[in-house]
């Protein structure tokens, strides 16, 4: 009941008044501050408190449904193993159980209906925001607090005129009393100012036929609102698993990557291996480099591939590297046709179910440094990509500072001239400025609208929102072309 009242209050207040309301509604949660200050708090509890603080400011009335989905069981998909001897039988069995091939789903009527629904929801969101702001103004006038209205009239008018309120918002007052490093973490994670005008966006994919899928790539899922679970995968006579279960949203960055035969492909942060498997099943005739810096994650990565791909094929087409992804751009510049950089992030869903995660108070500094580290990885990925090649950046968080913010800063930074005063670029062998452009993924969103809930207010790339009827994500991805 406390959370219900908490969300109703948030949805009825504009961004400028949330600062005051959080103080009032924070008290039932903790005796002193809205964030857990006692050392016995589990990091998953801290993560939820942080999300309840930050995400209503971004997603507004959609946050309760997103929150519910994050706290519910995720909905997996089954990536069929084309090398398994039971490949055909497994697909027939899944179809009998009611599953559909997500990549080949061609119900045009359903797709069109969901596109119309999304458009109506977008319009309703704008109308809802304006209605609530005007309603708040009228309530203040009736309560005799019109002086507050006058003081904030400019802010209210700006909220009505602009649709990018997800990119800028204020920091609540209680944070000022926390220790300095915790305050820094909150400010960096919550405050995100995205310019939105420093990167050019092209719509090269609008004519792409997303129904042309390679015969080796099959991904099965159950229809919307069907929360059936897949049985554990089994091994065939050759010892290979028949399918690999994963989050369905992980398929989208691979679709965006658009790998072609004989491409040289780099998966910069490859473990645990689900996205890399999709890349290889999408286009087996490539040279795939899988990199990860962590020993345990690298071992898990190789184990997954050994369970899914024959050894002779593995040796011939796949290279495993254990190194610092930030150095790939320096060590192997302009070497790959396609680069996927699925960076470490706050992993929102994982953070709510794991007792020790990046929201742990022992990892505050790591969380503070996370956007800068993500930017280094993306810049390294772009440097490792050939001119004309494609880089896809992805995360599994809803936070704008780790998504659009990283993309914008990385592309802007690479475009800077490496003059003698720009010392931070001296370590690279090729210090010439690199120009990039973002390729719109709107046509991809439209094609997969039946399976995924996409956030409409986003500057660069696409963001999959968890939704209880099809509980995928969260996942952000952005398609970038290196021009020079």
Automatic annotation (TrEMBL):
The keyword Transferase applies. Residues 165-483 form the SAM-dependent MTase RsmB/NOP-type domain. It is found in: Mitochondrion. Belongs to the class I-like SAM-binding methyltransferase superfamily. RsmB/NOP family. S-adenosyl-L-methionine binds at residues 269-275, 292, 324, 342. GO terms for molecular function: RNA binding; RNA methyltransferase activity. The active site is at 396 (nucleophile). GO terms for biological process: rRNA methylation. This is NOL1/NOP2/Sun domain family member 4. Its main location: mitochondrion. The keyword Transferase applies. It catalyses: a cytidine in rRNA + S-adenosyl-L-methionine = a 5-methylcytidine in rRNA + S-adenosyl-L-homocysteine + H(+). GO terms for cellular component: mitochondrial large ribosomal subunit. Keywords: Methyltransferase, Mitochondrion, RNA-binding, rRNA processing, S-adenosyl-L-methionine, Transferase, Transit peptide.
